[in-house]
Write a structure and sequence with these properties.
With about 160 residues, this protein is an alpha+beta fold. Helices cover about 15% and strands about 25% of the residues.
């Protein structure tokens, strides 16, 4: 092949092209780097609140009762279907069997179980942690059924 020459019309165009290619190569290198260019920030020290002595709280209780933390109490009655009523507000919270949510607290919550034909039952519910409460409702005694004559016959009746 006889002398083939390539002429570049303007040397500034070649310089611009070289600068663009160098910029692209530098950007590609920076994006492919896996380690950060600056040192990571040191973790902040967080002060921990002092905990109360273990003797003052139940072993399974949350260390600091928090009203925004809800505990779940499974409640059931025999027979089922009793209304679960919060004594403080007289609000019906559900009917047995039911899982009821309470704000976590050290002081127990009082609930009353009510079912037609049965005596109401009031209980203190520990609400420091999740739990279970089961009650047995007693039927209301029927009037006049408290005394029966012996032998089943009324006095003065003919045999």
């Amino acid at each position: 092949m006889s002398g083939t020459t390539v002429r570049i019309g303007n040397s500034s165009t070649a310089i611009r092209a070289a600068l663009v290619l160098a910029g692209i190569a530098g950007l590609a290198l920076a994006c492919s780097r896996k380690t950060p260019t600056s040192a990571p920030a040191a973790p902040l020290a967080v002060a921990k609140a002092p905990s109360p002595p273990d003797a003052q709280r139940p072993a399974d209780a949350h260390p600091f009762p928090d009203p925004s933390f809800l505990v779940l109490i499974w409640m059931e009655s025999t027979p089922p279907g009793a209304a679960i009523r919060r004594v403080l507000t007289n609000h019906v919270m559900g009917w047995t069997p039911e899982t009821v949510e309470f704000p976590q607290a050290i002081k127990p919550e009082q609930v009353r179980f009510e079912l037609e034909g049965y005596l109401p039952v009031t209980r203190d519910v520990p609400v420091a942690s999740d739990g279970k409460l089961a009650v047995v409702l007693q039927p209301i005694p029927k009037k006049g059924a408290t005394k029966k004559a012996k032998g089943g016959a009324r006095a003065g009746s003919a045999p």
